[in-house]
Amino acid sequence: MPDTSSATAIDSAVFRDIFTTAAMRRVFSDANRVQKYLDFEAALARAQARLGIIPAEAAEEIVHHCRAEEIDFVKLKIETERVGYPVLPVVQQLATLCRGRLGEWCHWGATTQDVTDTAAVLQIGEAFALIEADIEAIAAALAGLARRYRDTPMAGRSNLQQAVPITFGYKMATVLAAFERHKQRLAELKTRALVGEFGGAAGTLASLGGRGLEVQAELMKELKLGVPAIAWHTLRDTIAEVGCVLGLVAGTCGKLAFDVKLLMQTEVEELYEPFHWGRGSSSTMPQKRNPISSVYITALNAVVRQQVAALLDAMVEDHERATGPWQIEWLVLPEIFCLTAGVLAHTRFVLTGLQVDEKKMRANLDLTRGLIVAEAAMMALGPYLGRQSAHDLIYDVCRQVIATGRPLVELLAENNAVIRHFDRAALARLCDPANYLGEAGAMVDRVLATHASALAGQHPGRAQAGQHGASSGDGAAAIAAAMKCLDDFIAAWNARDLRAWEETMNFPHVRLNDANELTISRKGEMTEAAYATLLQDPTLQDWHHSAWAKRDVVAVSADKVHVQTRFVRYRADNSVLSSFDSLYVVTREDGRWGVRMRSSFAP
Predict the structure, then answer these.
(1) 321 an active-site residue?
(2) Given this model, what pLDDT does residue 463 score?
(3) What is the pLDDT of residues 246-291, one digit of tens each?
(4) CATH number corresponding to 461-601
(5) Which residues neighbour 264 within 8 Å (Cβ) at sequence distance 6 or greater?
(6) Model-level pTM?
(7) Per-residue pLDDT tens over the stretch 324-373
(8) For tag attachment on the chain, is the N or C end more exposed, with fewer CB atoms within 10 Å?
(9) pLDDT class for 149, splitting at 50, 70, 90?
(10) Could you give the C-alpha distances from 140 to 135, 156, 169, 187, 346, in angstroms and in order?
């Protein structure tokens, strides 16, 4: 039976994987925190031995015992309650574990806050890796939706009322643009936040007799952290900044969730969260299909933002070592990360299986009998009547639409001031919402280009646009086309649409017959046995949906993009069914982009 004694949602046996993720809990677990204390002590010993400050034999012995498995956590709890801080009890246990008196050399010249702060920074670094992976996956899902629905008209809404037409792709691209900014913020933040602390009692390193800065530099080299220009024991701006950036990320997810909830309303029904049996059910109303992930995103986001405010309070500290505000960070920083991980996990789930009803979007555009294009009519008449006069005329006609229930186009066609300039066919075109989308498509393309450029050149280890003979512009265009192919590939796979799936591929030997069955017409790069294995995979019996967990561009040319991917299959409860690392080569042949898979293996 699982431990049911937890009093918090993050550690609850029932709720913990709803409110956060196992990976983020591990980062901020007692075991990992203590291991980070020991990582500091081991790095300090190695650095000081290398500089001849402590004996090499002592450093070797200290490092040998810097393993959390050797710490007595029951004793640590008792001693922490007695001392008030966990670092001294850990150091005492470490010293005792060392043979002879070699343990006396551990923690040389350091102070409790040096260890605690640096351990927190190491945890932040691990947590950032998880956050960045989720943000990349969310951005990829948003890019896929933006591409697929670039030209799908829907109602833009202001003050909860229909305003003017937009496209669903445009709506998704606005959120994608925010996530691209979040990626930039995180990249910039890491240079400031992933900086260690080693200042000694009051930050001056006086205890090391003039060698403090040498030790500090060697210590940070060992830990792969930035070297602080000066102690930051009571200057907590970078820790607060970490919380603020996570608050921004969670807030963007909250905005998206709010829109999903509104678009799931019975009277709207343009979107639905991914469905599996029983999800969103009511205990008394059998017809209900309530939003679930969006609801949790809303709740988690609100708590994250409140905890960020607590981190800002913790900045107000006294003198060189604080009396109280520092401990606020111990409480809220792990919670901010854990709850943000929950927000991102739910957001990934929603976006990778989002159900979009294009027909309902179109039907809702017609709900107001043309009022949604009132601005279009006003702007068309403006050059003839003047903007204000056109506004007043269309305002009066709109009141007639509301009073009579007749379509706007009909009433405009009966207005002498209007028909003097427009015939019925022109008015019909004018009143079609699909003809009043402005620069939505161009804006979507611009955001997708930014996303593609980031994939190509802004992340270490990824291919720069321009490799293998492609210019920067050609490389970005090729990456954008490749990512669209991969998005279409997985969308067709999730829709169980084999014909659409085949259309995304450049496998000349794969064909779909009239019975919608994949057949092999001639031998190609994939063997018949490989396809038979794919189609008969027994794990697909439990498969609900799939998503890209990773898409790293590794080489680019004008007609070919190599993408290292991780393809994840999920069950209906969003647990992982299977995953495969694959190298996809997306090629342009006869002007058509398609997917080829070179190799696949389970990670």
Answers:
(1) yes
(2) 39
(3) 999 999 999 999 999 999 999 999 999 887 776 766 677 776 778 8
(4) 3.10.450.50
(5) 271, 272, 273, 289, 291, 294
(6) 0.78
(7) 999 999 999 999 999 999 999 999 999 988 999 999 999 999 999 999 99
(8) N
(9) very high
(10) 8, 23, 13, 18, 15
pLDDT at 472 over 50: no
**Catalytic site residue 25?**
no
H-type helices in 366-471, by residue range?
Answer: 374-385, 387-404, 408-413, 416-419, 424-430, 440-457
Long-range contacts of residues 26-32, Cβ cutoff 8 Å, at least 24 apart: 27/123, 27/126, 27/127, 27/130, 27/337, 28/123, 28/127, 28/334, 28/337, 28/338, 30/73, 31/68, 32/68, 32/123, 32/126
CB 406 within 8 A of CB 417: no
Q: Which of 50, 321, 429, 566 is catalytic?
A: 321
Residue 456: Cβ within 10 Å count:
24
pLDDT at 322 over 80: yes
Kindly report, residue by residue over 429-457, the tens digit of the pLDDT.
999 999 999 999 999 999 998 888 777 65
Edge-to-edge order in the sheet of strand 592-601 = 545-556, 560-570, 576-589, 592-601
- Kindly indicate whether the domain formed by 371-430 is annotated with CATH number 1.10.40.30: yes
Considering the domain 112-197+232-362 in this protein, what is its CATH number?
1.20.200.10
Extract the runs of DSSP E, i.e. beta strands, from 159-312. Answer: 161-167, 271-272
Which one of the listed residues 26, 99, 207, 282 is annotated catalytic? Answer: 282
Distance CA 545, CA 568 (A): 9
Domain boundaries, the chain: 16-105, 112-197+232-362, 371-430, 461-601
- Separation in Å, CA 67 to CA 38, 76, 99, 116, 124: 7, 14, 15, 17, 20
Structure tokens at 380: 């068309």
